[in-house]
């Protein structure tokens, strides 16, 4: 028996609120099944399970907010491989045998200090209106949450919902409050990064002529829906380059920890502000077509804040691309605990010298922002060189 | 149109007694000094001359004896009004009240009703000291078989008795000595009151102040002052302490979501304890703040005026408690 815990969906996530169980006690689940929906600062996330198991017990109910690492459910792995940990980021020491668990009262969520002081009426109204009372501050005696506090919160929620309706963005239900919390999440992660990580920056100008010729040629033979974008090529090239320079595909956690999976986090800008970084898993094992279809799948879902837990938690490196018509170069801030972020500027025609000749070529300025604790400039430079080589031989991509 | 007449609490009580004597020949008044002396508090002054010795009966100074006689008369078909000077002396008649008045219907297998009405002066008078000043309502409200009324207003003082005399079972009516000289206006055209229900004396939305007896006017005064600073209180006069009108109490608190209970009786094991418990049991999820009680300080009522005042909740205590509960600066 092992515990299924609240996964960490990034270094900036401290807790999550269970919104809905998708499975119930006694259900058999297999790797990749969605077991629950969790509300985080990054929106409503579908939580996957990574074991083949039977659900023994659901420990918390919908509406409960728990810190990362808190047990959500008890599961019984079918092959009894206790070491197949629930999520990639869950720490092993969180998994206790059930007997040990029984000694402590089964209140996985809060210690007595965290008990929310709320009047019975306020609590009832909050429950009826799906208000998370842990987010409220109380105006009553000794900070108790009163009816008035809850009603204010409902009014705020209602106002948010109404203004969204007015904007006609009904498909993105929770975006008003979500974009505020995403802003807060980005702020927290970037501040931490800039405070703690000594960045170094490298830049290389890469000629995209050959890569684009190959892409355009391929696109001519395809229906519109299956056409490739430069981003797919770039992701593929980055993935192959990381195979050669694995030091950048790593996490910094008391030292450099090189990851064998190459999961490239791809920065997606949200319409209402803020960014979200879904991962394209095992990008080095995917063909360009597969990467393209992954992008087609994940970008709309990212914009709607409907991602799965693994897509948010598993990135081993981040890539940001300015896109057509934008700035020429971008110097990213690393998303901890990763050790590098690759930035692609706008692909534009520029004078380009090669073999003693000057020509006009589509070029892209590629930057590496990397953690100097983890690697030195030589590593970053080696990566850019490898990337250039791959993009000059697009047929091998 | 509503006609209003100004009347003292004492006069209201007297009119109630006189009306009862006029309307039913089975009714008579008995008690210490009710006849020749005109009543210890002059409630029955002049009634002996008006109705004669058969109807206005002076009794020996023995509460157990004359309350027992009243119970006997009731069992025998009369409608006695027994006046006990103060409830403090009523304790001497407790055996008759509990073991006979409250119990005979049960002991007789439902054959023997005891339609006696016992009026008792209650609460602080004015510097009458501990043995004449206590509020014993909770003690009587504890006893199954009794109906316990509390006349907290002039209107109730005037009209409660008629209804009490209609009851087939023993009724204790508490009257308040300190209110006897107070003059208030009462409507002329109202000739009866409903003694089975609590009465919302003032409608409000912010908080329910639940009280009875001496507390009613104090709470109304506090409510009026609170209204001037924008706090809209609801004042519930319990009026009947046994059986409690739970419906009215719970409806009020369900509306305001906050309850302050005010009484002069000692706090422990009191009417306010009972109401607080019922609110908690029945409408816990309507509460937006803990129930608060203001009650008598748990000492014998002192003789010095300033200590006497300090021993029971006053208007300002009520105002402050409400402000605190509503987080009002």
Distance N to C terminus of chain A: 44 Å
- Oligomerization: heterodimer
Most residues in contact, chain pair and counts: A-B, 13 and 11 residues
Backbone shape of chain B: globular
- Largest sheet, spatial ordering of strands of chain B: 3-2-4-5-7-6-12
First and last CA, distance of chain B: 41 Å
What is the makeup of the main sheet of chain A? Answer: 7 strands, mixed
Number of strands of chain A: 20
Work out the radius of gyration of chain A: 24 Å
Shape of chain A: elongated
What would you give as the CATH superfamily of the largest domain in chain A?
Answer: Chloramphenicol acetyltransferase-like domain
Which bin fits the share of residues in helices of chain B? 25-40%
Short recap of the structure:
Chain A has 397 residues and is α+β, with helices and mostly antiparallel strands. Chain A is built from nine helices and 20 strands. Chain A folds into three domains: 2-112, Beta Barrel (OB fold (Dihydrolipoamide Acetyltransferase, E2P)); 116-168, E3-binding domain (Dihydrolipoamide Transferase); 199-396, Chloramphenicol acetyltransferase-like domain (Chloramphenicol Acetyltransferase, 2-Layer Sandwich), CATH 3.30.559.
Description of the structure:
Chain A is an alpha+beta fold. Chain A has 9 helices and 20 strands. Chain A folds into 3 domains: 2-112, RNA polymerase II/Efflux pump adaptor protein, barrel-sandwich hybrid domain (OB fold (Dihydrolipoamide Acetyltransferase, E2P), Beta Barrel), CATH 2.40.50; 116-168, Dihydrolipoamide Transferase, CATH 4.10.320; 199-396, Chloramphenicol acetyltransferase-like domain (Chloramphenicol Acetyltransferase, 2-Layer Sandwich), CATH 3.30.559.10. Chain A has helices spanning 98-103, 120-128, 147-167, 175-196, 209-220, 230-244, 288-303, 309-313, 377-392, and strands at 2-5, 15-21, 28-29, 34-40, 43-48, 53-58, 65-67, 71-77, 199-207, 250-252, 256-258, 264-266, 268-269, 275-276, 279-280, 306-308, 317-321, 340-344, 348-354, 357-371. In chain A, α2 runs parallel beside α3, α6 (230-244) crosses α7 (288-303) and α6 crosses α9 (377-392). The radius of gyration of chain A is 24 Å and the shape is elongated. The two termini of chain A are 44 Å apart. By secondary structure, chain B is an alpha/beta fold. Helices cover 37% and strands 21% of the residues of chain B. Chain B has 13 helices and 14 strands. Chain B has helices at 9-23, 47-51, 63-75, 87-90, 94-101, 104-107, 137-141, 154-166, 215-228, 246-256, 271-283, 305-310, 315-325; strands at residues 4-8, 27-31, 56-58, 79-84, 117-122, 147-150, 171-176, 183-187, 199-202, 207-211, 233-237, 240-242, 259-266, 292-296. In chain B, α1 packs parallel to α8 (154-166) and α3 runs parallel beside α5 (94-101). The interface between A and B is medium-sized, with 13 and 11 residues.
């Amino acid at each position: 028996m092992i515990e299924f815990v609240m996964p960490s969906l990034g270094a900036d996530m401290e807790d999550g609120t269970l919104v809905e169980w998708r499975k119930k006690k006694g259900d058999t689940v297999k790797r990749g099944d969605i077991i629950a929906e969790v509300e985080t600062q990054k929106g409503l996330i579908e939580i996957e399970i990574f074991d083949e198991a039977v659900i023994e017990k659901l420990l918390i109910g919908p509406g409960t907010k728990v810190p990362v690492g808190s047990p959500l459910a008890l599961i019984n792995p079918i092959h009894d491989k206790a070491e197949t940990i629930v999520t990639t980021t869950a720490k092993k020491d969180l998994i206790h045998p059930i007997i040990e668990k029984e000694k402590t009262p089964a209140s996985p969520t809060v210690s007595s200090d965290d008990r929310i002081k709320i009047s019975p009426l306020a609590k009832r109204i909050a429950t009826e209106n799906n208000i998370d009372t842990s987010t409220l501050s109380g105006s009553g005696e000794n900070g108790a949450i009163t009816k008035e506090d809850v009603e204010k919160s409902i009014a705020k929620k209602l106002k948010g919902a109404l203004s969204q309706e007015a904007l006609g963005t009904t498909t993105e239900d929770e975006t008003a409050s979500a974009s505020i919390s995403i802003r807060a999440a980005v702020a927290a992660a970037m501040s931490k990064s800039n405070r703690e990580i000594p960045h170094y920056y490298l830049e290389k100008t890469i000629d995209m002529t050959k890569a684009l010729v190959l892409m355009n040629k391929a696109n001519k033979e395809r229906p519109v829906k299956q056409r490739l974008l430069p981003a797919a090529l770039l992701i593929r090239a980055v993935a192959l380059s990381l195979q050669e320079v694995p030091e950048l595909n790593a996490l910094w956690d008391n030292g450099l920890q090189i990851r064998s999976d190459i999961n490239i986090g791809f920065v997606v800008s949200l319409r209402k502000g803020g960014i979200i970084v879904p991962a394209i898993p095992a990008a080095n094992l995917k063909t360009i077509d597969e990467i393209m279809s992954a992008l087609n799948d994940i970008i709309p879902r990212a914009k709607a804040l409907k991602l799965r837990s693994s897509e948010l938690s598993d990135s081993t490196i981040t890539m940001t691309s300015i896109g057509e018509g934008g700035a020429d170069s971008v110097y990213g801030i690393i998303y901890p605990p990763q050790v590098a972020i690759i930035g692609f500027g706008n692909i534009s025609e520029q004078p380009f010298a090669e073999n003693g000749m000057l020509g006009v070529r589509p070029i892209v300025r590629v930057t590496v922002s990397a953690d100097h604790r983890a690697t030195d400039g030589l590593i970053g430079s080696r990566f850019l060189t490898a990337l250039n080589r791959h993009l000059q031989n697009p047929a091998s991509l | 149109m509503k006609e209003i007449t100004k009347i003292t609490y004492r006069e209201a009580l007297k009119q109630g007694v006189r009306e009862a004597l006029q309307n039913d020949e089975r009714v008579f008044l008995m008690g210490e000094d009710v006849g020749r002396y005109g009543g210890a508090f002059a409630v029955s002054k002049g009634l002996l001359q008006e109705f004669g010795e058969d109807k206005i009966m002076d009794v020996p100074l023995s509460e157990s004896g004359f309350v027992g006689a009243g119970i006997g008369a009731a069992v025998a078909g009369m409608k006695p009004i027994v006046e006990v000077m103060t409830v403090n002396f009523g304790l001497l008649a407790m055996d008759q009240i509990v073991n006979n008045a409250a119990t005979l219907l049960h002991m007789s297998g439902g054959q023997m009703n005891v339609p006696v009405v016992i009026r008792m002066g209650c609460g602080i008078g004015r510097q009458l000291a501990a043995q004449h000043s206590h509020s014993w309502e909770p003690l009587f409200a504890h006893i199954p078989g009794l109906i316990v009324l509390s006349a907290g207003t002039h209107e109730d003082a005037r009209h409660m008795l008629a209804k009490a005399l209609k009851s087939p079972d023993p009724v204790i009516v508490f009257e308040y000595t300190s209110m006897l000289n107070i003059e208030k206006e009462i409507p002329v055209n109202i000739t009866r009151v409903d003694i089975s229900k609590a009465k919302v004396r003032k409608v409000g939305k912010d908080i329910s102040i639940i009280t009875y007896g001496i507390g009613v006017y104090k709470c109304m005064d506090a409510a009026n002052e609170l209204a001037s600073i924008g706090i809209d209180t609801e004042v519930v006069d319990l009026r009947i302490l046994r059986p409690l009108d739970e419906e009215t109490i719970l409806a009020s608190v369900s509306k305001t979501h906050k309850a302050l209970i005010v009484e002069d009786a000692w706090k422990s094991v009191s009417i306010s304890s009972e109401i607080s418990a019922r609110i908690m049991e029945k409408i816990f999820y309507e509460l937006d703040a803990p129930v608060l009680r203001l009650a008598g300080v748990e000492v014998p009522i002192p003789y010095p005026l300033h200590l006497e005042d300090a021993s029971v909740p006053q208007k300002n205590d009520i105002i402050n408690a409400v402000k605190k509960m509503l987080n009002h600066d």
